């Protein structure tokens, strides 16, 4: 049975629908996805290594939980579904924003979420072959060195994540200064 996604314009307005296969073979068909970054108390990010059976980026590292927004589904519902399907977790999510990523074969508008979580993660072995907590600095080093292979969309998601983390730090610093 075919899986369908909403096709959207650059402003995320729905303009049609297409199959997963069509969306993954035509970068003009912008579709929706989600990225979730699980953070523990040590401020480490849980990375997943994608199963070798995945159609895109098999064996590559990516965000804690990722996936597409199905036709008729919204970003928040997709994020909760993917978090449960991939990591077996039901926990509060905070949406940080949206970003666009493109490759030679697909284009997506992705919603980025953060989830604070400290319990053990029981990932779905059909989706994920490895899961590890990694410091933000180590992820930066890995991206520069190429030591780990990362999915293209993750690179954009991580940039957006860092931008939001930096904004949060500045707000906290400003609030502390004002309270003195």
What is the β-strand count? 9
User: Please, how many domains?
Assistant: 1
Q: How do the helices and strands follow one another from N- to C-terminus? A: EEHEEEEHEEEHH
State the fourth-level CATH superfamily.
Nucleoside Triphosphate Pyrophosphohydrolase
CATH architecture: Alpha-Beta Complex
The number of helical elements comes to 4
Share in helix: 25-40%
Distance between the termini: 61 Å
If strands are numbered along the chain, what order do they take across the biggest sheet? 6-3-8-7
The quaternary state of the protein chains shown equals: single chain
Task: Write up this protein.
Helix content is 31%, strand content 34%. It contains four helices and nine strands, in the order ββαββββαβββαα. It has a single domain, classed as Nucleoside Triphosphate Pyrophosphohydrolase, CATH 3.90.79.10. The chain is globular, with a radius of gyration of 17 Å. The strands form three sheets. A four-stranded mixed beta sheet has the order 6-3-8-7, with helices on both faces. With 180 residues, it is of the alpha+beta class. The chain starts with a strand and ends with a helix.
Brief description of this entry?
This protein has helices at 20-23, 75-87, 136-145, 152-179; strands spanning 4-8, 14-19, 30-39, 44-50, 61-62, 65-68, 94-102, 107-116, 128-135. By secondary structure, the chain is α+β, with helices and mostly antiparallel strands.
